Amino acid sequence: MRVFTYQKAATPAEAAAAALRMPGARFIAGGTNLLDLMKLEIETPAHLIDVNGLALDKVEATNDGGLRIGALVRNTALAAHATVRRDYGVLSRALLAGASAQLRNKATTAGNLLQRTRCPYFYDTNQACNKRVPGSGCSAIGGFSRPLAIVGGSDACIATHPSDMAVAMRVLDASIDTVRADGAVRTIPIADFYRLPGNTPHVETVLQPGELITGVVLPRPPGGTHMYRKVRDRASYAFALVSVAAVILPDGTGRLALGGVAPQPWRVAGAEQAMPDGAAAVARQLLAGARPTDDNAFKVTLAERTIASVLREAQAVQAKKG
Ligand SMILES: Cc1cc2nc3c(=O)[nH]c(=O)nc-3n(C[C@H](O)[C@H](O)[C@H](O)COP(=O)(O)OP(=O)(O)OC[C@H]3O[C@@H](n4cnc5c(N)ncnc54)[C@H](O)[C@@H]3O)c2cc1C
Ligand code: SF4
What we know:
- The chain has 322 residues and is α+β, with helices and mostly antiparallel strands.
- It contains twelve helices and eleven strands.
- It is 30% helix and 17% strand.
- The strands form three sheets. It has a five-stranded antiparallel beta sheet with strand order 4-5-8-6-7.
């Protein structure tokens, strides 16, 4: 690990201002991703701004019946929160499908959204990787690409976004609140938050330098049956090959997003309109334009089968409820 300086921020605006002022600065929250990357010298921040003391650790009702989740709310606390369990079950389930209990105790809402890809070449500094070293090439294309993206990738990068939580937040139409170095605040719909890789896979979100996430807002609960199904190589402690987050209403309509298949949580409005026609119709639209490799073409079938199983289970749950 390289030498770095460290400060504890007293307010969100101070944290954002310090991050802009200090070249190469990074915020640190739970540290469960950033510290690993620093040990491997994939991230080499010259300065760390510890945000753990900021008053961003509450889950609160909003005036219009939604929920505001502070950036520092730990994954364990969020998954267990009574309102989240009752009204946003897909989020609670997605969180519990991620990492391990110990990691979830440390991991924060903002850190989870901004965790880096698990592409094996990103973690191997002997290999070319456009995301780690812009312009160096992509070892995954033509290499080992089993866990990587089948849709939304580019000729420069086919990495997936690894977060389970973000897939559920996408299906819940969450928005992300931020503060910038000049104290200006803004709200970014999660649909606009992540950038596709294109020619600049190292630029992953629309956040500006120094911009700090202060929280995530969920709109009013959508009702319906909430499901999160994660398919992975091991039953626990593994990232998704394919995951499905869904909110399904009694009439068979609803919302659905995929994880593990794209550089961002993958949701396509037209695909949801096909929900009453069944899983094959939904998958066809969600994965339109997919460019799988020989290694990961299985994800196309896996996604369709996982969607089918989620729709079937939602029907069974609704039949039980009467
Ligand atoms: C072995 C292992 C298995 C895992 N399995 C899964 C899994 O199955 N599913 C899953 O979803 N995740 C998994 N994870 C990832 C884990 O969920 C993330 O590491 C964690 O959520 C990151 O949160 P953190 O608070 O520790 O972030 P940190 O490591 O502190 O930060 C991550 C990034 O976010 C930035 N950041 C943090 N807070 C803010 C803020 N307020 N504003 C702006 N930027 C900020 C940091 O600068 C950094 O770039 C796994 C991790 C490990 C180590
Ligand atoms: S897929 Fe992306 S992260 Fe993986 S090696 Fe290629 S450029 Fe790097």
